[in-house]
Design brief:
The chain is an alpha/beta fold and 297 residues long. The protein is built from 11 helices and 15 strands. The radius of gyration is 19 Å and the shape is globular. Belongs to the bacterial solute-binding protein 3 family. One of its GO terms (cellular component) is extracellular region. This is Amino acid ABC transporter substrate-binding protein.
Amino acid sequence: MKKLIPFTLAFGLVCLQWTGSAHAQLGDTLQKIKSSGVIHLGGRDATLPFSYVVNGNPIGFSADLCQKVVDAVKSELKLPDLKVQYTIVTPANRIPLVQNGTIDLECSTTTNTAVRAQQVDFAPTHFVSSIAIAVKKTSRIKSLADLGGKTVSTVTGSTSIQVLRTHRRNDKLDIKEVSGKDDAETFLLFATGRADAMILDDVKLASLIAQESQPGDYLILDDRLRDEPYGFMYRNNDPQFKAVVDRTLVDLMRNGEMDSLYTKWFLRPVPPRGLNLNFPMTPAVKEAYRNPSSRGI
């Protein structure tokens, strides 16, 4: 049974458990897991279909992949009764929670960038999205250039903010920003008219729109600002744990299980409302599975 614990409680427990020997243990995740009998995963509460909470615990494409890693760790450590504890993370706190040992493996939609790779390590890419722009069909916004003088909603701590600011400087566009703490809050700013557009990964935008009562009111523009490789995060300088995680994901890509899981979450109805994203595998995703890599941007 996976147990979901709030960040404040999780952080307090970790601080008590690790006082005095944290630095020694952080570099050996497998030993930490073996000693405690628990693996700590980080998930998101509303990032459908990757990681979102139903009946108390995260489910989704990313959650399924991380469960495969859990099974591999059970086998590696000969711990059939290994417990799983989830901590819900946000874009703003996910990296610190990996670094300080609150979570051992972050299982959501984090873009692998060179800056982040200086702070944490990344597993092989499990998805590639593209940063895109969502608007209301009544807005008359047809391209990035039309955002001049408009307000755009972005997620705090996301790479889309940096991409937007780069385009704003290069194209000399007067774009105002409002930010939400997560995808759902940011979409609410957009849907309720406090922003004229929202910039985020295309698959996340498609998911958020699909959950609306009137999804036909929205449009994702053809402009794509940058490709974003997603990777699960774990601590730097931990080759034993890295080997288990990476081997598990690469095996899934090569034996066809990854394709089956993709179909389950992107091409079929998913709980709890039976939404179907109808989001076929893109050439970039297919290439990521043909040639597994932890290469970032």
